[in-house]
Amino acid sequence: MDQLPPGITGNVKRFLSGSQKDALQWRQIKTLKHYTNAFVVQDGKVRSLVVPFLSTAHIKEVQILLGMKKRGWGIGKYNGFGGKVDQGETPLEAAMRELEEEAGIQAPLEYAGTLIFLTDDVEWAFHIHIYRADSYTGTITESEEMKPEWFSASPDTTDLPPIPFERMWETDEAWIPLLISKKTFIGRADFVGPKDQSKPYKWWYGTVEDS
Ligand SMILES: COc1nc(N)nc2c1ncn2[C@H]1C[C@H](O)[C@@H](COP(=O)(O)OP(=O)(O)OP(=O)(O)O)O1
To answer: Which residues form the Nudix hydrolase domain (predicted)?
Structure first.
């Protein structure tokens, strides 16, 4: 196995890695702050596609709920719902709280993966606990922080817009497919540049193997 980036542990298998400039090293992790990010991924309608001269294929749509961040860190970007883990909370409790505060819903969240992000303007490493759920209860409601919207993970079969990767954090495109296909993942991405224009220069994503 190739050398794992600092902060990545466990029985992992590399899925994708890269760098803009090979000479640059991983940033040093001085302190970690814990964050959450929660996604609802649900089956949509079953569509029938007629394949000429062959048969009719029945394709199930997959839909993902994202929120457009209206303020603060990552403003204007689409992401899952989440924020800092408060003192005395477990990451799961924080994820449930943030999902309710930001999207107005409750969901049976399950652990999906872990991401570590470092960047110029912030001296700590973001340790993000990612969760997903297949269903939710309550009414999806826009909050002061997030504007929720459904997107399609199977764009040819639906009227919903495709996942807006061009308006998400760069490198999200690497792990969102793992989240959707329920493969537990772990990753790290180091960014450079000022806050709203920071770009990844080194990244590593892997799947977590059963031990
Ligand atoms: C590249 O960096 C990031 N990528 C992705 N996909 N998500 C990220 C990245 N950096 C941070 N995040 C996530 C982690 C959290 O879910 C939010 C940030 O949380 P926020 O700063 O809004 O924390 P809150 O507790 O909500 O802050 P308030 O005090 O403003 O409520 O973004």
So the answer is: 44-176
Domains of the chain: residue spans and CATH: 13-208 (3.90.79.10)
Ligand 1, closest atom to CA 82?
16
Cβ of 84 below 6 Å from ligand 1: yes
Residues 6+ apart with CB under 8 A from 137: 105, 106, 107
ipTM, 2 decimals?
0.92
Whether residue 165 has its Cβ less than 6 Å from ligand 1 = no
Q: With bands split at pLDDT 50, 70 and 90, how would you rate the model's confidence at 50?
A: low
Strand 55-69 relative to strand 78-79, pairing: antiparallel
Ligand 1 centroid from CA 69, angstroms:
9
Q: Give the residue-averaged pLDDT of 122-149.
A: 97
Q: Decide which of 153 and 137 is more confident.
A: 137
Ligand 1 atom with the shortest distance to the CA of 198: 1
Strands 122-133 and 110-119: antiparallel
Tell me what the mean pLDDT of segment 74-79 comes to. 95
Residue 45 confidence (pLDDT): 67
